[in-house]
Amino acid sequence: MDPYPNRPMPMTEPIRQYPQMGAVLPISLMILLILTIVGVASMQSATFEEHKTGNMQDQNVALQSAEAALREVEIGLLKPVPEVMGVKIRQVGDFESGQPGLYHAQTSVTNQPEVQDFEAGANAIEATSILADSQNAPTFTVTYVKGIAGNSPALSNASEASGARLMDVIKITTRSYGMNAQTKIVLVSQVGLKPIPE
Q1: How far apart are CA 82 and CA 58, in angstroms?
Q2: Is 42 inside any structural domain?
Q3: Which are the contacts of 18, defined by CB distance < 8 A and separation ≥ 6?
Q4: Distance of CA 96 to the CA centre of its chain
């Protein structure tokens, strides 16, 4: 109950109507549009970076797989009696024997991996060292390149200029795959061995 019943009611001013310009709505929509564009751009950038990281990891797996196969072959060749996956190399002619993956640079030019594509691995040897993430086992070929004689200009020691073979050069070509079959890496290494009997 009103304690002052006889009090006059306050006069209220009429509400004035100001013309509405509507600036808040367009500005809000522009800010929302800018934020949307920034968000979409950052999502695309994150997706690109994710793909880039995946590709780098894939290439890294292929490279490590190829290096593992290369080391496996090099270790076999550096044994007292060189061998390739259990096959003993007792003479240079073993490279011409038609054994898969073994080549002689002077006699099997048309069959060498640089000329013939060994995509399916038909003329290559499959390595036993395979990484868990690799799609396929790496393959390799071993090519007898040449023997270096004592009168070779590559040798500077005059006492070695006897003309006898001092070293044989063997080329190893490995091909490996990453986490998918689309990523391939080919590594080539040359190894110098003590002379293999003719």
Answers
A1: 33
A2: yes
A3: none
A4: 32
